[in-house]
Design goal:
Elements: E1 14-17, E2 25-28, E3 33-38, H1 51-64, H2 66-92, E4 96-101, E5 107-113, H3 117-149, H4 156-190, H5 195-208, H6 212-218, H7 225-232, H8 237-262, E6 278-280, H9 289-320
Antiparallel strand pairs: 1-2, 2-3, 4-5, 4-6
Helix pairs in contact: 1-9, 2-3, 2-4, 2-9, 3-4, 3-6, 3-9, 4-5, 4-6, 5-8, 6-7, 8-9
Length: 335
């Protein structure tokens, strides 16, 4: 590996510490940086960190930027999440599902009573706002990680503005991924014998697009996020799948833990047995709006940081694979 040249106006071509991603090495062709990136000291091509160092670095970056991430979560997803939760609570608080049985206790008819349709419509609208805010948060987290990785921390307000600008691209990629998975699930339900085909296709689809959201957030706008992700995931597919599963497990575990912690403080306790004439939907939410709102806030914070950890892990993986960055992220050339 060639050492970084000192006091040279025109350094010779070779592998040098990467000033673009802040990790590994990038090839200098004598005039400019190329797309060739390597984690290994021999400069033999792109690489991937072992899962332990990769996860540790992802956690470290989230902890280092926790204060700014907290502000982003508090501004973006907490208000909309709390609003949608409260509106849903008010919409179904007095609602009941009514059941009619025949002489053999078989349900013959189902009805609803006390359901506030107008309030539920507003709850759906607030949920969509929360979903849009989560896309902005994903883009902002990617910015925070990229800048922190190169020891140039970005203020949360700048990440917020940058995330807003990139959110349409992130939304488009996310909708494409969701649509693809929905179609695979749809065909699986219709033609269940195709299960042995659709499941591997779904896994392949998810792995190849694993870095598309990060690409949409930090790559040059002229770079296709999907094509970029496919290129970066063309190797190390099993390693990338393992990291995806690990992050999804962490997010699921965080949701499970917060549910277990919040349950004793007023969680819903709805029960239903065959023969019961009605099922009060409000019982699912507990009887106290204040307690329910507190649960929403705590749950939103935990979910927000869990999502931030997932985003950080994907951003670190994107940088390790030598993902292209927009010029606003590039460090000045050391030459």
């Amino acid at each position: 590996m060639t050492d970084l040249p000192q006091n040279s106006e025109s350094p010779e071509e070779g592998w040098y510490p990467d000033p673009v991603t802040g990790t590994g090495h990038r090839y200098w062709n004598g005039f400019a940086w190329t797309d060739e990136h390597s984690l290994d000291p021999g400069g033999t091509g792109g690489g991937i960190q072992p899962v332990g160092p990769w996860f540790s670095e992802s956690v470290r970056l989230v902890l280092d930027r926790s204060f700014d991430l907290f502000k982003l979560i508090a501004v973006l997803v907490l208000p909309t999440g709390l609003l949608s939760g409260i509106l849903l609570y008010l919409a179904v608080r007095d609602a009941r599902v009514l059941f009619t049985y025949d002489q053999n206790d078989v349900i013959t008819d189902i009805g609803f009573d006390g359901f506030r349709g107008g309030m539920f419509t507003w709850a759906v609208f607030a949920f969509l706002l929360n979903l849009l805010a989560s896309f902005v948060l994903a883009a902002a987290v990617s910015r925070q990680v990229v800048f922190a990785r190169t020891d140039r921390p970005e203020a949360w307000t700048q990440s917020l503005v940058g995330g807003l600008k990139r959110s349409p691209r992130v939304l488009g990629v996310s909708l494409l991924l969701g649509l693809g998975l929905f179609l695979l699930l749809f065909f699986t339900v219709l033609f269940w014998p195709l299960l042995l085909i659709t499941v591997p296709l779904a896994v392949f689809f998810v792995v190849r697009l694993a870095l598309a959201t990060t690409s949409a957030a930090v790559a040059p706008k002229s770079t296709g996020a999907v094509a970029n992700s496919i290129r970066l995931t063309s190797t190390f597919a099993w390693a990338i799948l393992g990291r995806l599963l690990l992050m999804l497990f962490v997010v699921f575990a965080a949701q499970l833990v917060i549910g277990m912690i919040a349950a004793p403080f007023g969680g819903g306790s709805a029960t239903f047995q065959n023969g019961d004439p009605e099922l009060p939907l409000g019982d699912f939410f507990g009887g106290n709006l204040g307690v329910y709102g507190f649960q929403q806030v705590v749950g939103g914070l935990v979910s927000g940081f869990a999502s931030a950890l997932y985003g950080a892990g994907m951003a670190v993986l994107y940088l390790d694979r030598g993902g292209e960055l927009d010029e606003e992220f590039a460090m000045p050339s050391p030459f």
